[in-house]
Every structure is written in C-alpha cells, then in structure tokens.
Amino acid sequence: MGELLRLDAVSRAYGAVVVADAQSWSLAAGEALGVIGPNGAGKTSMFNLVTGTLSPQSGRIWFDGRDVTDMPAARRCRAGMTRSFQVPQPFGGMTVFENTLVAATQGAGERGAKAEATCLEVLARTRMMPKANVLARSLTLLERKRLELARALCTRPKLLLLDEIAGGLTDSECGSLVQTIRDVRETGVSIVWIEHVVHALMAVVDRLIVIDFGRVIADGEPHAIMASREVREIYLGLDADV
Fold it and tell me: Are residues 161 and 82 in contact, defined by beta-carbon separation less than 8 angstroms?
C-alpha cells in the first residue's frame, strides 16, 4: 500500500503549552490507525493540524502525495480529507437528508441527482435511511453520531478522521457503530480514529499510536502497545508491575 498521510516533525504550542511536539508518523492507504492518550494530550489538536483548522509552527504535512501544510481546510476536504467532531454538530433545523446534502454539495462538490444519490447510498450504509426526513435536533445520541459519520462520508473521503465517535454510547450501541465503521473500511477509506473506548478501537484498527503532551510515545501493533509498560503507566494510570 502507498502512503496517504505523513506528518514530518509537526509542532504547535500555545506559550508553554505544547499540543504537538515534533510529531512524525504516517498512514498507508487503506490502513486504520487508532490514537489514544490522556485527556489534554493533544489528540484533537493533532486532528486540527491535519485537517487545516490549526496551522503548525514548524514541520510539514503531506496528503496523497501533496504538501498540504498551507492548504485551507475546505480545500483539504475537497482533496479527500474529512473528519467527525467529538460533539456532533448537525444543522438541527434541517432533516437528516438535508444535512448530508450540504456535505455532498459543499464538501464533495456534487450537484443534483449525483449528490442526492450519494446521500441515499451513505444513509443506507450508516443505517440512517429510516431517519432521512427527521429533523436532526430530534435524534438520539447514537443517531447524531451516525449522522456525523454520514455527513463526513458524503464528502467522498479518502481519509476519514474520527474523534471519539463511540463516546457516551452503550455497549450494544458501540458494537453497532463499530460494525458500521468496519463496513466503511471495506470500501477502501483510510481511517485515523481517536477514542477512549479502547475495545472499539481494537476491533477495527491495524495500528495504534499513543500521544502524551503532544508527543508520540508509542507506535505499533495494538495489543503490543496496550501491553507496554509506558502505556500502562501514562495512559491507563496503572502500576507497571500490576
């Protein structure tokens, strides 16, 4: 598989607070990467840097063979990069279908029948078709998270960045969402997924990185990462000898 995304020594700080400390890592096309770390470690800031809503103070970001470090967020979306947000942010006064149509037209540049077909296909894939004509503000938490995923997919991404999409769900809801994300992977979309629900990550990702104080402190096979002494001490808060 070829490389889809690469960060080369990307750094960003707010005064003494470092949110990205010379981060260097890459993602292969078709790969699913999990990202874990304590609250405040800089995980969402890293997403903001990758997607262009935050600019690095040093380092470069490459996507699909192009240097996108200075590319605006909207252009990165059109180039095939999209994300979900930790707290779903639908247009509450619009229906589920209308929310996805905004994504298809503005994010993917599609129009007319093509945009509508994209929305219907994605709503079916994310199991939201029965809610297509329901106002987004009336959805349950699981449904809002599914809509957040659907809107992202309607931009026709090569790379999907998920920010704690399983947070707040019951075990059965989480299991259902994991299956949907697996289905998305089957279409060839690459995934970077920040999540505190570790068992959900372990069911999907090929690789895991751990971020602490803006630094990547571990990168590798998920089970080996979770068994490491440093991760047990820093992320899980466990005595390393337990």
Answer: yes
